[in-house]
Structures are given as C-alpha cells and as structure tokens.
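input
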Amino acid sequence: MKAFRWIYVILGILIFLCLGTVYSWSIFRKPLEGALNLSSTQSGLPFMVFLAFYALLMPLGGKLINKYHPRKILILGGVFVGLGWLLSSWAKNIWFLVFTYGVIAGSGVGIAYGVPISVVSRWFYDKKGLALGILLSGFGLSPFITAPIAKRLMDIKGVFTTFKILGVAFLVIVILLSLPFKFPEEIKIEKTEEGLSKGPKEMLKSSKFYALWFCFMVATLVGLMIIGITGPVGEDIIKIDSKKIAIFISLFSAFNGLGRPIFGWLTDLLKPVRVISLSYILILLAAILLIVFKEGSVILFTIAFALFWMNFGGWLAIAPALTSKFFGSRFYSQNYGIVFTAYGFGAIIGNLLSGMLKDFLGSYKYVAYPIIGFVIIALVVANIYIKRED
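output
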C-alpha cells in the first residue's frame, strides 16, 4: 500500500504540469498583441484575471473537497481549465479572452489545485513534507515542458489554434488522470497541541498573520509580474531571438520548481525572519541586475530572472510552511486558504503595474524600482512583526 501511494504523487505532478501552463503566458503576449492589436497593459489582463480567480476559487475548492469525492472536484476543475483554453481560441477581442482564459480557466485551476495536495497529504501522513515538495514542483516546472511545446505550436499553427489544441489536451489529460484519486480509507491525523492551533478567527486577530500576508503578497507581486514579462524583456531589451525565448522560460521554470524544496528545507532549518530576509535580499539583487543590464546582457538577464523565478517558487513553500508553524495544523486548510488571497492581490497589482510602466515609460526595466521599494517595506515589516516571536 505504501508503494502504491506514490502513484498519486506522479499523477499529481502530471496534472500540475497542465494546470501550471499559466506560467508560460509571457510567450503568448506578443502574438496576441499583434493579432488583437493590444497594448502591453491589455495583454497582461488575461494572466492577471486568471491568477486572481485561481486564488479566489482555491478556498472554495478546499470546502468542496471535504464535501464531495476528490475525484469529482478534480474532474470539475479539469473541465473548467480545458474549456477555458479551448474557448479562448475563438477570442476576437481582449474582453472575451479575459473571460474565457482568465475567469473560466483560472477558476478551474483554483478548484482543482488543492485536490492533489489534500490527497497526497492524507496518504503521506508520515512523509508529508517530502511528498508535497515533490508534488508541488510539477506546477513550478510546468513551463519547462509546456513553453517549448506552446511556442512550437504557435510557430506552426498560430496562437488561436494553439489555444484550441492545448484546451483539448488539458481536458482529456486532467480528466483521465483524475480517475484514480481518492482518500485512504483510514485517515491518519497529525496530532497537534491544542494551544498551538488557531482557527481563522483567532488567526485574523494576530499581527503575525497580517505580516505574513503582506510579505507573501509582495513576493507574489514580484514573481507574477516577472513571469508575465519574461518573454517581452528577453526579446525587446536583451534582443534574444523569439524562437529561443521559450528555452529561457523553460530554464527559469526549472528554478521556479527547485525553489520550492530548497526554501521549504530552509524554512525548517532557519528562523522564519531569516528565511524571509534571505529571499528578499536575493530579489533585491535581481532587481539591481534588471536596472543595469542592456542589449546583449544574456548572462545578467539569466541570473536576474533565475533569481526572480526561484524566489517566487520558494515563497509557495515558505507561505504554507509558516502558516502551519505560526497557527498550527488543525485548521491549516482554512487558514492557508485565507493567507493565499495574498497571491490574488499580488497578481492584480503586479500585472497592472508592469503593463502601465511599459505603456507610460516605454520599457519593462522600470519595474525594478517599485520592486525595490516593495521589498524594502516588506523587509521592515518582517523584521518588526515576524521576528518579534521567533
């Protein structure tokens, strides 16, 4: 039975590879800008709305998992994801695309995302950290697989036919891989001290919650902003050939995936404020490199964006780990659903900010300055409110 349970990790990784294709959005932006005559701000809207609905629907998905069979919820999410991509192939304007890709596909990911996590955590009650770390790497590593495939399809078939092909593929793959998912008959519950566990109401009275929420929001604002502009920065500023940019996105997605187990391990090893400070210092370094690199600075571009992507992935391990550490595991799923709303706010602010800076100032390089400002503020918040009770 213990050997069999690894099948859920493997299937979950494959499902997350499909769901995580949203992180390849930057390679769709320029083709869509040309096809629909969009500004930089407009081409970021579907990505922004997708991430917002992903964050908003995740708490709902968590509630549905406890009420219905996990297989049904995973299939429901897969249907929304597949239909969202498929319907996007008929987009004639940005608002149609915002609804089909942003609202429908984004909601599907929000509904489905928690199912593999919940199932794997139940089966791996004795190796939860290891199993979840491996599982979650699939979402971060998705562009490593999907970006080159999508880029190749667009070169051959065009952007809208690519939406159609990917939509059908995701619909079939996610539904088929969902079929084996179930909770173990005997559910192992991790014992926690009652005094260490806080429910949502108690958590919302804690200054530590608001500090963690703000720090997570800043990290996701930076990460999602950067993910959304990686392709255009590589092509427009560094002058990397458009046919090669997908290779760089694949490389960065590998760092995104690696950031999760690395920072998860560091969160267990170091005090929370030290892990947060380390991450922010690396982000500041990347932002400084973004300011100084220019046309042909391929090495600096690679270092900066690898750091950005790695730290974004790292925070998707830091935030859940600290939620459990600060507020206990008894109400973990409800608490983290609330903490995760920071992801949605980060998505909205980051994508609007990057698009407006590009449209008004003419270059994505200017995103470095608000990144530095936000990170410095978050560093101060962490060192005052999170360090207090370390």
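quick obs: The first helix runs from residue 6 to 19.
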